[in-house]
Q: What sequence folds into this?
């Protein structure tokens, strides 16, 4: 399974853009990159997923460089409610390399 | 859609007692996952099922843990006998496995405290 590495924690202030980078040097050709968000006392929830280049939805953007060995989750203009743990997972359903390893994630603390 | 349903939400028991956690996946999903989360070890996969069949139970800590999925709408995770080190939040999640870009939907979790 592809191993991912993320910063343990990050701090930001309301209104700033936050970028969380995840390294996945041994990503396989067919692997997708998926990010989850977990608030205290809740289960993780899906944020965004991508394969290459850039993906954007109403919550975040995901930037994936051409070599796909890393990815960056971008949260525009964060608010206090974005304080959570963010997990990066890598995997591919078709080859059995399912994205099931959450690791420790990145703990984002947003200050007023 | 009610989402993934777990019960109980909180459980306090004494060491040596049997504990049974329950999960109802989202209707139509054919994969079900049990995770355990602690401060020390983070979020760990215990076992997952595809179409009610256990596929990978390599994360189950020891023989005291067992999981079943008798039908597509129900699964249990049993700990017998329970020990204080089993104290954790246990999450159940489900997904639609035939979709290549798999997304897991998590339940609210069961917070277990073993005294």
A:
């Amino acid at each position: 399974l592809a191993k991912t590495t993320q910063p343990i924690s990050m701090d930001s202030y309301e209104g700033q853009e936050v970028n969380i980078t995840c390294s996945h040097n041994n990503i396989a050709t067919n692997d997708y990159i998926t990010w989850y968000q977990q608030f205290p006392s809740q289960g993780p929830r899906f944020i965004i997923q991508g394969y290459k280049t850039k993906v954007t939805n109403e919550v975040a953007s995901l930037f994936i460089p051409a070599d796909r060995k890393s990815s960056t989750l971008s949260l525009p203009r964060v608010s206090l409610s974005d304080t959570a743990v963010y997990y990066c997972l890598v995997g591919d359903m078709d080859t059995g390399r399912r994205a099931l390893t959450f690791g420790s994630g990145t703990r984002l603390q947003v200050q007023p | 859609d009610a989402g993934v349903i777990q019960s109980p939400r909180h459980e306090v028991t004494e060491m040596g007692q049997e504990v049974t956690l329950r999960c109802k996946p989202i209707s139509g999903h054919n994969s079900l996952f049990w995770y355990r989360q602690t401060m020390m070890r983070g979020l760990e996969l215990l076992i997952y099922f595809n179409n009610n069949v256990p596929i990978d139970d390599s994360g189950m800590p020891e023989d005291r843990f067992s999981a079943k999925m008798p039908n597509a709408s129900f699964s249990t995770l049993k700990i017998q006998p329970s020990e204080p080190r089993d104290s954790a939040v246990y999450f159940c999640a489900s997904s639609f496995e035939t979709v290549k870009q798999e997304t897991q939907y998590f339940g609210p979790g069961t917070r277990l405290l073993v005294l």
About this structure: The CA atoms of residues 66 and 78 of chain B lie 5 Å apart. Chain B has a mean pLDDT of 93.
